[in-house]
């Protein structure tokens, strides 16, 4: 779409809302004071001759960096061992990997 429209991609990572609405857990949409971090990356120009694979690879790389940054900057920590469900394993949590969560 960006290529056809001759516009850049704007990568963005959001961390925090998953604590309110997560597959397999009770929705807590009225819970207050749950931090949400949004980080917007630099625009990614999309060349007219770029392949979809190269565009996707660049976007994935940028999103990965942004996601890691918002996860590490998140101000809340789990309240205890049973509250680690929302953190990814590489940060000491028990959240499932995306492939397992999509089933």
Can you describe what's shown?
The protein is an alpha+beta fold. It has one domain. Helices cover 29% and strands 8% of the residues. The chain is built from three helices and two strands, in the order αββαα. Strands 1-2 form a two-stranded antiparallel ribbon. The longest helix has 22 residues. The chain is elongated. The mean pLDDT is 93. It comes from Actinoplanes philippinensis. This is 1-acyl-sn-glycerol-3-phosphate acyltransferase.
* Major sheet description: 2 strands, antiparallel
* Order of neighbouring strands in the sheet with most strands: 1-2
Low-confidence stretches: none
Structural class: alpha+beta
Q: Report the portion of residues in β strands.
A: 5-15%
Total number of strands: 2
Q: Report the helical percentage.
A: 25-40%
Quick one: overall form?
elongated
Chain-averaged pLDDT = 93
| Number of individual domains | 1
List SSEs in N-to-C order.
Answer: HEEHH
Spatial extent as radius of gyration: 17 Å
Give the count of helical stretches.
3
Instruction: State the separation between the terminal residues, measured CA to CA.
Output: 28 Å
Distinctive features:
3 helices; 29% helix; elongated; two-stranded antiparallel sheet; 103 residues; alpha+beta; single chain; 8% strand
Any chance you could write out the topology, listing elements then pairs?
Elements (H helix, E strand, L loop, with lengths): L1 H4 L6 E4 L21 E4 L11 H22 L24 H4 L2
Antiparallel strand pairs: 1-2
């Amino acid at each position: 779409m960006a290529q056809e429209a001759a516009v850049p991609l704007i990568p963005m990572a959001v961390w925090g809302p998953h604590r309110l609405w997560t597959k397999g857990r009770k929705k807590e949409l009225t819970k207050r004071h749950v931090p949400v971090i949004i980080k917007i990356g630099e625009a990614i120009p999309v060349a007219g001759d770029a392949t979809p694979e190269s565009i996707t690879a660049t976007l994935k790389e940028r999103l990965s960096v942004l996601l890691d940054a918002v996860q590490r900057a998140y101000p809340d920590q789990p309240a205890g061992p049973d509250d680690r469900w929302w953190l990814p394993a590489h940060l000491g949590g028990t959240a499932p990997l995306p492939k397992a969560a999509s089933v």
